[in-house]
Amino acid sequence: MTTERLSFDVVVVGAGTAGANAAVKLAVGGRRVLLLERRGADAAGAQWHNGVLDWQFDAAGVARPAPPERAPTAPRTHIVGPDGHYGVCVQDNPVTRADMALLGRRLRRAAQDAGVEIVDHVEGIDVRTGGDRLVAVEVAVAAPQKPPRSLSVEAALFVDASGRAGVLRRHSRPLAPWCPEIGGDELCTAADHHLRIDDVDGARRFLDRFGAAPGEAVTMVGLAGGFSTRAITVSADLSEASVLVGCLANGRYSTGSRMLSQTRADEPWLGASISGGAGLIPLRRPYARLSAPGIALVGDAACQVFPAHGSGIGMGLLAGSMLAEAVAGASDPGDENVLWAYQADFQRTHGGMLAAFDTFRRMSTALGGRGVGRMMRAGLLNENLVRAGLDQRWQVPDRAAMPAMAYRMARVPSVAARMLPLLARGQLLYPMGGRYPIEADVVALGRWNSRVERLLGPLPS
Ligand SMILES: Cc1cc2nc3c(=O)[nH]c(=O)nc-3n(C[C@H](O)[C@H](O)[C@H](O)COP(=O)(O)OP(=O)(O)OC[C@H]3O[C@@H](n4cnc5c(N)ncnc54)[C@H](O)[C@@H]3O)c2cc1C
After folding, report:
1. What structural domains does the chain harbor?
2. What CA–CA distance (Å, rounded) separates 388 from 186?
3. Residue with the nearest Cα to atom 16 of ligand 1?
4. What is the Å distance from ligand 1's center to 21 Cα?
5. Atom of ligand 1 nearest to the CA of 18
6. Which tens digits make up the pLDDT trace of 307-340?
7. Separation of 115 CA from ligand 1 center, angstroms?
8. Does this model's pTM top 0.90?
9. Are 296 and 362 in contact (CB under 8 A)?
10. Distance (Å, rounded) from C-alpha 214 to C-alpha 19?
11. How many angstroms does the Cα of residue 314 sit away from the middle of ligand 1?
């Protein structure tokens, strides 16, 4: 087999939402872009419905999903504890549900329109470095019914958008110390399925149990460890429901697929699956370093995920757009200083918020399922706080609400003892994003990172 030799300005690996958007924005900015994808056309990235936020699409310069990509959204979300105890109702839920397969296709079409060359069915990627800089990838392509091909592609910049696995990241020597492997305590095992409703009366009885109406969502938290959820949204016409389940992937609780089976056993009114999927989501704050000479990370490969509930679509879109903006006009888009501007911009704009909300994930883990239930019964889950979490925006504590919160906390001192230090750490972490070093300086970055690590504290068990 002969090897085709190619040269591009940028090679993006992974055509999920983060990679496809990065490819579009880089091509629109005048770069010659090659997009490599392991799966077939229209099968890249998430293939189920995800909750997304309009503000993140706007900020990333990506048109908001419109029907049919935009699915009907639950205006109200009822949050309940693991024992079914009612916690809080969030009105005007900011989260929109969108069909990721359709979003993926839209971004792929936009990439093609912008002149991005796309190669699917990439089977293996090897990297070639010059010193510490990535300079080329060797790619094996095995498309069905076509002879296997091999490509050798040089580029100034390689974007790792391959998801959690980070297929390029793991070959970059400068990134290695900053991008540790993620263990099960920092991974969410999740499943999301769209199902038919077989028994309308059963669905009505389920909604009645929580004072919910058709079209609304009931989210149970803390049922498989403190960090766990089972969100069921029933369509307004009672014909379909969506189920999102997830918990920590450390083997102590369950898996997304098992939680889905359990949900169907608990709620027999749910019928056959129409569409859906399952997978692992990184939950830690973004890696401290998102680039090195010749390489930039976006999306799950960079852990650009909202850690309090494992949402990565919006942050991945934002990252691709920020990367394209940072390299615009640069004679060498893989230059360390050019790429540092991307990571500094991302960390300064979103890193503090993401690190601060990492304390919420740690708090729910530390509380455990029983503690989360007690927190709910004590009335410590506040609608504004939940909405801020759903909207992925940090909220300064409401001084007027503090006396009531202090009174409630005093009634559950063991829960308060776990909550308060982490809430305080969140407040201290939020401004840390703005202190990310602007200039390329790994020593200053090391100091910043140690400070953030100290503020975050150890992972709760
Ligand atoms: C069940 C579930 C529910 C979720 N719900 C939500 C939600 O409601 N809201 C939300 O915002 N997020 C949600 N997430 C998380 C969200 O789906 C991810 O954060 C997001 O899809 C990450 O996008 P990405 O483009 O970075 O990576 P991915 O979507 O993982 O895409 C990576 C792409 O790279 C390709 N690839 C991998 N290796 C190679 C290789 N060697 N060569 C070429 N290509 C390669 C893959 O095939 C894939 O297409 C959920 C995740 C799961 C599993």
Report:
1. 3-62+101-183+284-349 (3.50.50.60), 184-282 (3.30.70), 353-456 (no CATH)
2. 22
3. 312
4. 13
5. 25
6. 999 999 999 999 999 999 999 999 999 999 999 9
7. 23
8. yes
9. no
10. 36
11. 12
